[in-house]
Please model this.
Amino acid sequence: MRILVTGGAGFLGSHLVDALVARGDEIVVLDDLSRGDESQVNPGAKFIQGDVRSFSDWKKACEDFNPDVIHHLAAINGTRRFHKEADLVVDVNVNGTRMSLRAAKKYKATLIFYSSPEAFGEQENMPLRNESTSVFTPAHLHQRHSYGASKHIGELLCQFESRKGLDVRIVRPCNVYGPRLRGDDNGQVVSMMMESNPIVVHGDGLQTRSLTWIYDVIEGLLKVNDSSNLSGKAFNLGSNQEISMVDLATIIGELRGVEIVHGESNHGDSKRRLPDISMNDEIDWHAKTSLEDGLAQLL
Model:
């Protein structure tokens, strides 16, 4: 199978590329290296540096390749960037998705769009279902939801094209962690706690997340890639093991032997995030790795 992966030099994308190459697929990676690293791209894949907002770069990746499937992961991520760089977040995430749909139509490829639980904003009713309403606070308070809103718009665009006959599938990886996850100021919570000293907990730390081991998620992504009759369907690829951030910090702090301090809350940080995973029965997938096992493997 010929597969194009945008954002394939990043954390999740590079692990996906590894799995696809390992099973014999022909892979092209399109990435601008703004967050990814070319050293993470599997040598069995062809790498093209480019901007997903530029259709000429899409042509470079697709013209002589004609992908069967496009995995569109490329996006501006990093919680602190959502408020500070809202214009860039919206530009890359929305226009990159528009170009991915254009490419999928031109080259007659299946598109797998990578959304996020952030697409539901500050929805408080859990678990998050495909039928859940997205709740975004007034824009003048902060721009944290530039990311979540851009993913929500991405889902709208995908569903629109699905109605017109394009094979589009939606996945929402849920707080994925594992090797290669960045732990800098724009990183994700597990890696930041793994690398910082002391560990900083934002606010009171009572906000909860359901963290999911990278290799479990990759297994789910392969099933979405390979299954039939999934157009217009969305899958929360996550664990239902919920943990507060202060408890997570306590576990990691004890494992690493470092102290915990409390810092300022992040703008618009949702109090809970627990995914509904019932839709995953359709692809016969559920997360298997407990948080304790995953953290032990990561250490």
Q: What stands out?
A: The chain has one domain: 2-298. The first helix runs from residue 11 to 22. Residues 2-298 form a domain with the Rossmann fold fold (CATH 3.40.50.720). The mean pLDDT is 95.
